[in-house]
Amino acid sequence: MNENVLGIVAGVLTSASMIPQLIKVLKEKNVKDLSLVMLLVLITGVSLWVWYGIMKDELPIILSNAFSVLVNLSLLICYFIYRKS
Amino acid sequence: MNENVLGIVAGVLTSASMIPQLIKVLKEKNVKDLSLVMLLVLITGVSLWVWYGIMKDELPIILSNAFSVLVNLSLLICYFIYRKS
């Protein structure tokens, strides 16, 4: 497989992986088994990838990670809405 | 910040983000709110990143994503052990 195609497929999969998790949380309104630390570390990490992409001027890195930031921020908001206090 | 340092910090954070999730699952033995589809898509994605790293001969990409494969495979095994049938 061409390495650019491979990189794009890999990037789409890792960026999109949290969408099924977000859908599950929105449906079941339950986040008890999700790790808040995981979400915070992940959001920090993908935000830094966006910054890295901006510095290197690499649009695919910027776009895929900015998308991940959005999905994971949504998941974080759901976490605080749905956690049992 | 130097862009290589930034890339390394970002890579370590995104690779390590699933460790707190794995620890939580091992402690609480509960995976009801985790999405199996998320795990499968993520493992496929990071595996393709390892392949990409091998093709581009970029050791940081290979190592950080191989580490992610290990953590997420452990989480997948836990998923099947702890899900209520």
From TrEMBL, chains A, B:
One of its GO terms (molecular function) is sugar transmembrane transporter activity. The keyword Transmembrane applies. It comes from the Bacteria. The keyword Oxidoreductase does not apply. One of its GO terms (cellular component) is membrane. The chain crosses the membrane at residues 6-23, 35-55, 61-82. InterPro entries: SemiSWEET, SWEET_rpt. Keywords: Membrane, Transmembrane, Transmembrane helix. This is MtN3 and saliva related transmembrane protein.
